[in-house]
Specification:
heterodimer, A: mainly alpha, 2 strands, globular, B: alpha/beta, D-Maltodextrin-Binding Protein, domain 2, 2 domains, four-stranded mixed sheet, 12 strands, about 50% helix
Chain lengths: ~325, ~425
């Protein structure tokens, strides 16, 4: 309903009053929802529904066989008395805190190299990206395990260099480095994003800095890093969240048990053992929600602190 | 108009998928006229699958009105899948079952009481002492397929190389420990008398049975004290410290082969039907089995139903399922197909149908040699038994890695056992 009747011919301004237009709008909305329907259905049935169910189960004792029994916060309380749970938290934190920076550093280093104009650039980019395409697969984890076993490629290589090893797979102090190496090797995704970010840094800045006598290290710290900080932030966020959820490689390398001596008992792996081997679904659900909360919290903290170090070039200073 | 048209198409699509789903639901009943179709699933290797295919073909040839729909996975994945199916009420018609899971499914009402079907499955061919393995409160939920017994394996080739005499069934535990030390000392680098055998839960159970106890009692309670477990795990402390046992690191490296299977340990305890697998793993020409060491003269041995058949309570064709189970348990031809690869056939008719040669004959001879002293077969194991067993193995390995002291490991095992058995 237009508030002013000015006697003007119907135009854009008075359009909302037109019944024809409204009908068309409604029809459009309906069609929009019809197109969205498959996704919405998938979201509610396959994601939101199970998530709500697991939220409920987190407060119950549920072994898949008997009806869930409400036990309030007991599952969450038990977490902190469970030595294996604490072990899984420790293992996962080490992996996230050590592994993620190493992986990002590797990704950035390779991106810097590939940012230089060189012959066969396209080939190198693909070659460095390839491991990420296959990295999450089961077969790679199996190959990885074989490589690091006693008598495997890595063992033979190290022995040849004068560092005899008995293989890494059976030694609890070496399984974490092995897992971090596997993650680092799959630096492709952040590397591509870094590369895209590097292309956005204006060349003039480097030229101006060079004229002022800044060396390459100086240019890196004073131009590349600040200009790239939004991309670094994005990658850091994504990789941190991913690292918390590592599962497939740990499951395969440790034979599904988190061994040797609990050294690869990642959070999600223990969650899986609790749910599907011990049939303690309530406990596993509680673990899942505790993880979701922690990841949410960490994301929040990262966003809150990002103002201090992330530089958006569009910002007026 | 176009929009309306689109909506109609979408609605039609939805309707047709709903229709399909409904059709899917109906097909089971509609099939009652034609041949009956049974879902059948088991765990096992490719070797077992090949034999199973032959056995199923034999069944279908003599029962043209029943169609078997087979499916198999490995042991771990098998139970994860069954648990989800049971929660959703969609278990297969016929399943291979394990003693440690039978109770969980039966008590939930997920399995059919086969006794209700009358004589559809003939169990008169099965040793009476074995039948309780499939029974709970008088109802029969599992029919034993085959039996196995615990035994002490040794590798004669390693002993010959070391110049050490073979272990015997009347050794004491102390004598056995000294024997391990001797083999390790006289063998070349990298070959040991044994792994740390105290990590095997069934061996601990055997040890307790030698003293008239059991690891888990009939009422599903833990049948030993913390002190007893502590003594057991400490019994090999000296051997561990002196490096007389293969290290935990090496054992992890060798997985999925066991130290014995990899030919790096001269002896190991396991179920006697492991012989065929050990022979393949080691490539040895001959491996031997004797009774485990004992301090009391009693070896604590018993026949265990190594596998059972169970029928899902939700089956639409209980008679056909029973017919299939009866065939698989009793038919002599099926017995000949499987040999002792699943253990010694539980049914007399199958034992008679098969001729045992080589490794099979060796297992039969071993079970005959201990036949006079066998204890009672265990009833279906308490819910949570699988967790007890895997925790036992894990904590023993952690002791070997030096991650826990024996006291810490004992405390942890008991803490976890209580919550596992409460379920």
């Amino acid at each position: 309903m237009s508030t002013l009747q000015t006697g003007q011919p119907r135009g854009i301004l008075s359009a909302p009053a037109s019944p024809d237009y409204r009908r068309a709008r409604r029809a459009e909305t309906r069609t929009g929802y019809a197109f969205l329907a498959p996704w919405l259905l998938g979201f509610f049935v396959l994601t939101a529904g199970p998530m709500l169910a697991s939220l409920y189960l987190a407060f119950t004792d549920y072994n898949l066989f008997r009806a869930p029994e409400w036990i309030g916060l007991d599952n969450f309380r038990q977490l902190f008395d469970d030595p294996r749970y604490l072990q899984s938290v420790k293992v996962t934190l080490v992996y996230v805190l050590v592994g993620t920076p190493i992986k990002l550093a590797a990704a950035l280093a390779v991106a810097l190299l590939l940012n230089n104009a060189l012959r066969g650039q396209g080939f190198y980019r693909s070659a460095f990206y390839a491991p990420s395409l296959i990295g999450a697969s089961v077969s790679i984890a199996i190959v990885w395990k074989a490589m690091f076993s006693d008598g495997g490629v890595v063992d033979l290589g190290l022995t040849g260099l004068g560092f005899p090893s008995e293989g890494w797979v059976g030694d609890p102090s070496k399984t974490m480095p092995m897992m971090i190496l596997l993650a680092t090797w799959q630096f492709g995704a952040p590397m591509v994003i870094f590369l895209a970010g590097l292309k956005q840094v204006p060349r003039e800045l480097y030229e101006a800095a060079a004229v002022d006598g800044a060396g390459s290290l100086r240019r890196f710290w004073s131009i590349t890093v600040p200009m790239l900080s939004p991309v670094i932030f994005f990658n850091l966020l994504l990789e941190t969240i991913n690292a918390f959820q590592v599962f497939a490689s740990a499951y395969i390398i440790s034979g599904g048990q988190g061994g040797p001596a609990g050294s690869t008992l990642f959070y999600t792996l223990y969650l899986y053992i609790r749910g599907f081997s011990d049939f303690r679904m309530g406990y596993a659900s509680a673990m899942a929600w505790a993880l979701a909360l922690v990841i949410g919290l960490i994301t929040l903290v990262m966003f809150r602190t990002s103002n201090a170090w992330v530089h958006y070039s569009g910002e007026s200073k | 108009m176009k929009n309306r048209h689109l909506l109609t198409v979408a609605a039609a699509l939805c309707a047709s998928t709903l229709g399909l789903a409904a059709c899917g639901g109906d097909s089971g009943e509609a099939a009652a006229d034609g041949p009956v179709s049974l879902d059948y699933t088991w765990w096992g290797s490719q070797d077992r699958a090949d034999r199973m295919t032959k056995a199923i073909a034999a069944f279908e040839a003599s029962h043209p009105d029943i169609d078997i729909n087979p499916n198999f996975t490995d042991f771990e994945g098998y139970w994860q899948k069954r648990a989800t199916e049971a929660a959703g009420g969609g278990l297969p018609d016929v399943m291979q079952f394990d003693l440690s899971y039978l109770r969980q499914y039966a008590e939930r009402g997920a399995l059919l009481d086969i006794g209700e079907l009358g004589d559809a499955v003939d169990t008169s061919t099965i040793e009476e002492s074995l039948l309780p393995s499939g029974q709970i409160d008088g109802a029969t939920y599992g029919v034993p397929i085959s039996t196995n017994a615990f035994g002490h394996f040794y590798n004669p080739a390693i002993l010959e190389q070391a110049g050490v005499a073979a272990p015997t069934g009347d050794m004491t535990w102390d004598e056995y420990d000294a024997w391990i030390r001797e083999v390790t000392e006289k063998s070349p680098e990298g070959v040991f008398g044994s792994g740390d055998y105290t990590g095997t839960f069934w061996l601990f159970d055997t040890y307790l049975r030698q003293q008239g106890k059991q690891a888990v009692t009939e009422d599903g309670e833990i049948g030993f004290t913390k002190a007893e477990l502590k003594e057991w795990w400490e019994s090999t402390a000296d051997l561990r410290e002196d490096g007389a046992l293969i290290s935990a690191e090496r054992t992890t490296q060798l997985d999925p082969k066991s130290p014995f299977g990899a030919g790096e340990a001269a002896s190991e305890f396991s179920w006697d039907n492991f012989l065929a697998g050990y022979l393949t793993d080691t490539g040895a020409e001959k491996l031997e089995i004797v009774a485990p060491p004992t301090d009391t003269g009693d070896h604590g041995l018993f026949l265990k139903a190594s596998m059972l058949y169970a029928i899902g309570a939700n089956t639409e064709h209980p008679e056909a399922a029973a017919e299939f189970v009866d065939f698989m348990v009793n038919d002599p031809e099926v017995g000949a197909i499987f040999g002792t690869s699943r253990g010694i056939p539980a049914s007399e008719t199958q034992r008679e149908g098969a001729t045992f040669e080589g490794a099979d004959a060796q297992i039969v001879a071993y079970e005959e040699s201990i036949a006079d002293e066998l204890g009672e077969s265990p009833a279906p194991l308490p819910i949570g038994f699988g967790t007890l067993e895997s925790n036992f193995k894990r904590l023993a390995s952690d002791i070997n890695y030096g991650r826990y002291t024996v006291d810490e490991a004992v405390d942890q095992w008991f803490a976890e056992a209580e919550s596992a058995l409460q379920q």
